[in-house]
Amino acid sequence: MNKLRYAPMAVIAGALLLAGCGLADVGATAVTQGASAAEQAKQGKELEAKVQKQLDEAQKAAEQQRAAAEAASQ
User: Fold this and answer.
1) What distance lies between CA 28 and its chain's CA centroid?
2) Mind listing the pLDDT tens digit for each residue in 5-64?
3) What is the reported pLDDT for 62?
4) How far is CA 60 from CA 18, 46, 53, 54, 69, in A?
5) Residues in contact with 9: Cβ distance below 8 Å, sequence separation at least 6, in sequence order
6) CA 74 – CA 40 distance, rounded (Å)
7) What DSSP letter does each residue of 23-58 carry, written as one string?
């Protein structure tokens, strides 16, 4: 019966030891890294859209130059 009296204190002591070793920070770090990865993905999509727009504009300019060159040669 005497052992049961100390069991809650042992659980509390164990919880305090684990809290002190940094396990509480693991969850916060994972959330921060997840937010960072989401932001990087968003920036990557924005960059991809910007590059695609530049490629489309360059292709349109090249088509206009070809059309002008064909018109000039006739």
Assistant:
1) 15
2) 656 666 666 666 655 555 555 555 666 777 788 888 889 999 999 999 999 999 999 999
3) 95
4) 63, 21, 11, 10, 14
5) none
6) 51
7) HHHHHHHHHHHHHHHHHHHHHHHHHHHHHHHHHHHH
Please identify which residue in the block is written with the tokens 């590059």: 51
Q: Which two tokens stand for residue 15?
A: 């919880």
Residue 68 pLDDT more than 70? yes
DSSP structure class, residue 17:
H
Per-residue model confidence (pLDDT) at position 1:
47
Residue ranges of domains in the chain: 2-73
> How far are the Cα atoms of 18, 25, 46 from residue 14, in angstroms, in the given order?
6, 17, 48
Tokens of 50: 């910007």
